[in-house]
Amino acid sequence: MLIISQYELSELIQKIKEKSPFEFKENQRSRLRALKIIVSKLYYSLDYKNEPQSSREKVTQMLLYHGQFNKEEIDETFRMSSRRTTDYSIEFLKHHPEMARIEARKSKEFPDEDEEIKNEELEKPVETKYVFPRYT
Q: What is the DSSP letter of 111?
């Protein structure tokens, strides 16, 4: 039996496709640790930098399809690794075009608009991103 952190990404995906259970010690702590490792490996295999929310949704759907973990456990795993930031992803800027405009005007191409940008930055929305440990 492999330790869950020793699974390669391809092995994780194969287990999900086949709906074969991940093997770990049968206690709550081991279960949650295994889920965190699985989520981390799947999440980092996607375009998480540009699309953190879409990546989260894809990982959640894969794991729900697999069936070994429930939505609450998966959501809690993401919640525990969430970080709020104003370092926006492309996905966030697509959903918030006003922020895309402000971010574009911050560039050196528009130095005359610095004062207007400062006024608009007072109430910046924040984006949620996820930071997991990396397992190799």
A: G
Instruction: Check residue 127 and report its DSSP letter.
Output: E
pTM recorded for the entire structure = 0.84
Closest alpha carbon to 79 in 50, 56, 106, 103: 56
Alpha carbons 119 and 42: distance in angstroms, whole number = 40
pLDDT tens-digit map of 6-23: 889 999 999 999 999 998
Q: 71, 29, 35, 54: which is closest to 130 by C-alpha?
A: 54
Alpha-carbon span 92 to 76, nearest angstrom: 22
- The three-state secondary structure class of 36 is helix
Residue showing tokens 């989260």: 56
The domains of the chain are located at 8-80, 83-131
Contacting residues for 78 by C-beta, under 8 A, at least 6 apart: 39, 56, 60, 130
